[in-house]
Amino acid sequence: MPPSAASRRSPLVVLFLTVFIDLMGFGIVIPLLPIYAERMQASAATAGSLIGVYSLMQLVFAPVWGAISDRVGRRPVLLVSLSASAVSYLLLAGAWSIPMLFVARILAGVAGANISVAQAYIADVTSGADRARGMGLIGAAFGLGMVVGPAVGAGLALLGPRVPECFAAGLCLANVLIAAYRLPESLPAGARERAGFAHPLSPVALRDAIARPGAAALLAVFFFVTLGFAVLEGNFSYAAHGYGYTASEVGMLWLYMGAVAVVVQGWLVGRLARRLPEPALVLVGTLALVVGFVWIPYAGALVRLLGALGLVIAGQGLASPSLSSLISKTSAAHAQGEALGVAQSLSAGARFVGPSAGGVILDRFNVRAVFLAAAACAAIALAVTAAGTRASAETAPDLIRVRRSR
User: Fold this and answer.
1) Stated pTM of the model
2) Which CATH class is domain 7-184?
3) CB environment 189-228: b (16+ within 10 A), e (fewer)
4) Residue 333: pLDDT band by 50, 70, 90 thresholds?
5) What is the pLDDT of residues 174-184, one digit of tens each?
6) Which CATH class is domain 208-406?
7) Where are the domains of the chain?
């Protein structure tokens, strides 16, 4: 007997809460790390490294978690990683030195690399257009958590110097309880990978990953889309100050971007996926990114800037979940965690490189050059996507035909 609609939705709701609470806990401490580093007489470079080391650990461990989940199941990996996140925030609350801060952030990055497992869970329980919608829900949870977290952290800091970290640890523990009681295993024992473990970023594993039909192009597009957005993400606040916006106004711009991300990834992607194939969504998304990035430095008035930022966020929201869905379809059912882990590692690498590379461009050139560099990354992604779409049209025209809505 097929599962009821409620039972099919339940895992998606729990996964949404899992990713949201995890990223909210992460976002809570972002405004506090530079302050703690300054109190401990650390340099600005050290403060930046405390943020960057999180993405570096994700680069290494996202494919590890994904590959392990292919062998033991998604649920135990999610429970272990969420428990480790709680421990990392407790370590951060008790940190008394710069090395302890790094230990806490390294553990947080290792534990927070479970996004590929959540995506693999989505791939296990969905198919077709529903998969793009599911990936969009994960993206919406990511964006909403990142928007709400910093605001909550700033407010809780007024109650005490260690309150935000303890609150984040409590969120993670609540997350563990929710997942333990409401998240069933999605990968049947018979579908699990039995082969020995090899790190998915090893040369052999990477060769196998890109050998799958279409995987190399999809991974390249995913990397450059994320890199362009990371350049914006890491340097927008500084650039906005240069254009005369106050700190509170910049905060409102970030809130606006988060709201757009939630609407696009939580609602629009699912509706469009029923009418357009995923390659078309990637094509539209990368085109929107190019136009938006080029428009930002020439926007001028606030209304035009909001339009440019909205275009960038919408482009990211259309492209990223569609790419995750397509990447999952390049691998067998028992290896989707590994495939998505490789993709998330590339994404983490882009988030590690993008902000620092944008900062170098900003120091050596100007604000305009930063956004044009982001546009160049998106243009590469657009070119690869267009080439792939053209090739698909020549071999299978029905793949890019607009679907009729039911």
Assistant:
1) 0.70
2) mainly alpha
3) eeeebeeeeeebbeeebbebbbebebbebbbbbbbbbbbb
4) low
5) 889 988 888 88
6) mainly alpha
7) 7-184, 208-406
